[in-house]
């Protein structure tokens, strides 16, 4: 345990840009490690990029079909060379409360599952993940390592709004993805949890580029402001509606789906204010949940919003998609939501929530064919376990 404390202290005291050199030095000293590499998942979650100083010289590693990618996808250590004698290469997933950040790869003299070394290194990468999240306030090093290409300014604004791309609690798992990752416009998602409930919002702003990003920024921050003031779900929608109408006078508006889940009972309040749609996977069957559509936020002055109720059951999977997903047509003219989306949700039912959005978007690309996308796309997946009763 003394060596774990030494590594943890090094991470806690290192400057944000020096986390990796400090970690590498201690892992070599305390654990006999070599070839320590930190890989960050890019915005599209298709590659893992080494964290190095600019200009980058190391090649990215694909998430699918690689040993580090296996650790990243399944969020468990993956070991290469464990069947032979001598050193092994270990890939350890780096995540914070279910938000997948990347992978730490290193060579060790040996690796025994369940050993003190295995347990300590698993805890060390948890500390590393927290330090990266905190460090991103003061350095661009890790954000730059996430980029396989330059973000548009609109995409930069949208990604900075997000709470993360996945989240895990005893009651639920969330996974989400936006596409095209480097040029998104108005789609966005947000979530917040408390002792008693989970609030989830998915939004789809009109327009493109900076105009769409500015609209979404105003809406998301208005919703957060109302939520943090303790307002009801309907009043959150009303406040955001007024903020948007006050700024744009109805010339621009934003579609949104707002949900609040009671963690103890699964009782769910919903405000449907536009185009994002909700699908339910329950006991192996897929269906769209029909909701009472209300006006988008900011379309008219003094719009009054009403909540409707739904019961989320343990084992349910809820999937939320924007019109850039369900309205996409195949070369033959079939909308994705007619049959293909249900097939995609059925075929991905065994995947964890964090992997479902990427898998659905890949299926969407196949459905679209060679036709270029004319809208951004969003998929959010919520796996509900609920809180065990006393």
TrEMBL record:
It is an enzyme of class 3 (hydrolase). Its EC number is 3.1.3.16. Keywords: Hydrolase. Gene3D superfamilies: PPM-type phosphatase domain. Residues 169-384 form the PPM-type phosphatase domain. It holds the Pfam family SpoIIE. SUPFAM superfamilies: PP2C-like (SSF81606). One of its GO terms (molecular function) is protein serine/threonine phosphatase activity. InterPro entries: Bact_Sigma-Reg, PPM-type-like_dom_sf, PPM-type_phosphatase-like_dom. This is PP2C family protein-serine/threonine phosphatase.
């Amino acid at each position: 345990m003394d060596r774990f404390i030494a590594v943890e202290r090094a991470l806690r005291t290192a400057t944000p840009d020096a986390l990796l050199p400090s970690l590498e030095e201690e892992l070599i000293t305390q654990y006999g490690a070599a070839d320590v590499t930190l890989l960050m998942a890019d915005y599209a979650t298709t590659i893992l990029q080494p964290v190095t100083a600019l200009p980058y010289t190391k090649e990215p590693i694909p998430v699918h079909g690689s040993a580090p990618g296996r650790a990243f996808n399944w969020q468990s250590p993956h070991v290469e060379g464990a069947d032979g004698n001598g050193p092994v290469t270990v890939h350890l997933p780096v995540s914070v409360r279910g938000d997948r950040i990347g992978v730490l790869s290193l060579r060790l003299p040996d690796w025994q599952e369940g050993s003190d070394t295995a347990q300590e290194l698993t805890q060390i990468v948890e500390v590393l993940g927290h330090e990266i999240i905190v460090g991103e306030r003061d350095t661009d090093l890790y954000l730059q390592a996430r980029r396989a290409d330059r973000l548009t300014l609109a995409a930069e604004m949208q990604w900075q709004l997000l709470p993360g791309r996945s989240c895990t609690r005893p009651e639920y798992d969330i996974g989400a993805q936006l596409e095209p990752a480097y040029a998104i416009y108005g789609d966005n998602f947000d979530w917040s949890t408390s002792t008693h409930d989970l609030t989830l919002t998915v939004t789809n702003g009109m327009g493109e580029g900076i105009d769409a990003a500015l609209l979404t920024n105003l809406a998301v921050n208005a919703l957060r402001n109302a939520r943090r003031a303790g307002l009801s779900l309907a009043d959150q929608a009303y406040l955001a509606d007024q903020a948007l109408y006050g700024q744009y006078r109805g010339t621009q508006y934003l579609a949104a789906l707002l949900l609040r889940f009671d963690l103890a009972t699964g009782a769910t309040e919903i405000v449907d204010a536009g185009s994002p749609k909700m699908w339910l996977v329950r006991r192996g069957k897929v269906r769209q949940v029909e909701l009472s559509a209300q006006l988008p936020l900011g379309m008219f002055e003094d719009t009054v919003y009403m909540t409707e109720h739904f019961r989320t059951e343990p084992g349910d999977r809820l999937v939320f998609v924007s019109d850039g997903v369900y309205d996409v047509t195949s070369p033959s003219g079939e909308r994705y939501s007619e049959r293909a989306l249900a097939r995609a949700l059925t075929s991905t039912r065994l995947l964890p929530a964090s992997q479902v959005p990427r898998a659905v978007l890949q299926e969407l690309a196949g459905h679209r064919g060679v036709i270029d996308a004319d809208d951004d796309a969003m998929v959010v997946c919520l796996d509900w376990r609920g809180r065990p009763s006393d």
